[in-house]
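Entry 14: structure prediction run for Cytochrome P450. Input pasted below.
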Amino acid sequence: AKTYLTASRSFGASPQAGIVLRPLSPLSSVLGRWFPLQHQTGSYFAKFSSYVKYGSTCIGTVTLWGMIPTLWLSDAQTIKTVAAESRVFRKDVEQYETLNIYGPNLLGTEGADWKRHRRVANPAFDEATNAFVWMETVRVVNEWFAELDSKAGSDSTITIDVLEDLVQVTLFVLLSAGFGRRVSWHEDSSTEPPSGHKLAFRAAVTTTISHLLTRALTPNWIYALSARVRLPLIGPILAETRESFDALRLHMLDLISLSRAWMVGGKVSNMDAGLLRSLVEANMTEANDVHHKRLTDEELLSDIFVGHLFQTSAHSLSFAMALLALYPAVQQKIYEETLRIWPDDCPSTASSSSHKEFMPQLIFFTAYTLAVFQETIRLFPPLTRLSKIAQADTTLTAHRSIPSSSGEIQGITPFSVPVRRGSIVAIDIMALHMNPMYWGQDAEEFKPERFIDTETYRWPRDAFFGFSAGPRSCIGQRFALTENVCALASLVRSYEISVPNYLAGKPFLEQKRLLLRWKPLITTTPINCVVRLQRRMPVA
Ligand code: HEM
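Run finished. Output tokens:
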């Protein structure tokens, strides 16, 4: 009781909402789905409701274990300050430990170690890589479309579990644009493994995907222990998981060696562009002495892989497809936009050079498709919260407000929030994205127009935190935007997306409830996202 009181006294004038689990603890995300008090601060489904209840954009809670004061923020300016002051507000890297699967990486490191990773990675995430991402997305989605068409019925329709397919699509893009290893949709997964390998590449990839969640949610010490001792129940699953991750690691390390050998030999690799080649190149030009250390092969591999671990693109594209099935008028607008870019048909191949020419105009030509994707991320941010630890005593500014009888936020006044060293500061991305101060009273509605500037409206940049901001923002943002906009535009150009037959006769709100369900695992994960696709006829 005494420690609780000491912790809660540190909040100053911020309202207090009791004891909750640590914001990013794996337990809180696994149990989040079943947490009964869904409007309670800290619940994954509370959206902005607890900030309305307390009339404040900052709420204090105390962690169940450790009694650590935790401040939850839904205020754009406060969050911007926290993200910018990365020396005062450090990432809660302890919570990322299980994501360091292949070794330390950009996401799970801090301080000098993080800087070393970011310095090597920055130049690799350039326009050449994005051009390659565009080209490979075109290739992979066309292979996917061929697969869908071969399975479609005589009326050219097919009903699919979107997530299952998109996990493969986005992984194939990553393997190619990330590792320079083209995997065809049709490649046989029963191919004999090459010498020195237990699994063929495709088999290593597919088994790794199926064990991704087990690995990411298993504490490293249990994982390590399971290699030495036969653990009851979970032992065999962990052994299988280890086998698949080890098999993929060996393949990836081969690719790194190959890339380096090409570089040393002065050869132009047939791995085209791609992150791996650029990373290997940037790493080789880094100084390697007592002060500077190059990244190891494991670290390079980990930096590329961690971007996929979250499956952010697969999840966001799934939500976007479900939303397009529910909102045909939005889909029609994307279709009209794609008719302007591709008057004849969706391209089946793209060269990276043609994309490079196209890229500067891309955002302009696909403004609406991009807005649909951003609005999807606003409603379903893959990471709904981030957590930082204060390294020094400091002060933030938040806002108090009084909701009117019609629920509108009014009487907004600033107030100071003392932050004690060691406190957790939780950036509540979902609440920020639902905050009516920035997005209006209809913040929960799907309206891509919010992301289109007009002469009288400029969309609130600081209130969109889907890719984070400041020095620790997503390094793969352009990669993800290129991939997702290309995939969405190609999809809508080729297919009409609608709700599956079993939902067709239901009221709209019921369709919405059933199609947009999600669970808070490592990232916001769609549940049972099923849509019907009908091939569009070629434009006459
Ligand atoms: C829809 C897609 C994506 C979204 C919404 C997204 C979102 C985010 C967010 C919110 C962070 C901050 C995480 C934190 O502070 O803990 C982040 C970091 C990061 N993302 Fe993404 N991401 C996406 C796709 C990607 C892709 C495709 C890659 C790589 C190919 C990638 C690589 C990374 C890396 C390496 C970091 C750590 C950066 C650092 O700390 O320096 N992300 N991402």
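Notes: The longest strand covers residues 409-419. Will compare against the previous run tomorrow.
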